[in-house]
Amino acid sequence: MTDQTLAKRARLGVSDWIAASMRLLVTEGPAALKISRLTDTLGVTKGSFYWHFADIAALKSALAEHCEAQQRAAAEHVQALSDLPAAERLDAMVDFISEPRRWSAEAAVRSWSHSDRTLCASIAELDRRLHKAIHQAMLDLGFDGDDAQARASLLLYSGLGYLQAAENTGPPDSETLHRFVALSTAR
């Protein structure tokens, strides 16, 4: 369903504006988050926007809260994998993060976070929790503390590098990511 079809079908709610904002953030970047751009995308008037938000800052704040909630949910998902055997845990993490829509959204949110302190802190917390989970998996695989730390850092920071490169090269496929994990856990 297109944004304009959604707007014609029913009165827009806050969640519709957030969803449209997220789509613009992913496809065009933070600079596209403007009232006129959003109303054009949704095929509605500015009055519809102001019915829900005082100004663009209020929308961006609501979008940032939405993104932070998504970051917390991702961190909780990773934490919930802790009962799996270490190798399965790492594979499940790769499967979770390699979902194509997640790549584009994550890259867009991380780009936007450079100008939003709260969002930046949320991403830093997610990265900390991911590193901790990967580190624990490496310990569970039998690597000593220093090796586990180095391998966890290698995986996390390589993943972030893949995320940054994906804008130009496209995201790596799941098989490539699984191969990278296998190389990182080899003895």
Account of the protein in words:
Pfam families: TetR_N. Keywords: DNA-binding. InterPro entries: Homeodomain-like_sf, HTH_TetR. This is Putative TetR family transcriptional regulator. It comes from Gordonia amarae NBRC 15530. With about 190 residues, this protein is mainly α. The chain has 2 domains: about 5-55, Homeodomain-like (Arc Repressor Mutant, subunit A, Orthogonal Bundle); about 65-185. The chain has 10 helices and no strands. The protein has helices spanning about 5-10, 15-30, 35-40, 45-50, 55-80, 85-95, 100-115, 115-140, 145-170, 175-185. Helix 2 (about 15-30) crosses helix 7 (about 100-115). The longest helix is centred in the middle third of the chain and has 25 residues, at about 55-80. The termini are far apart.
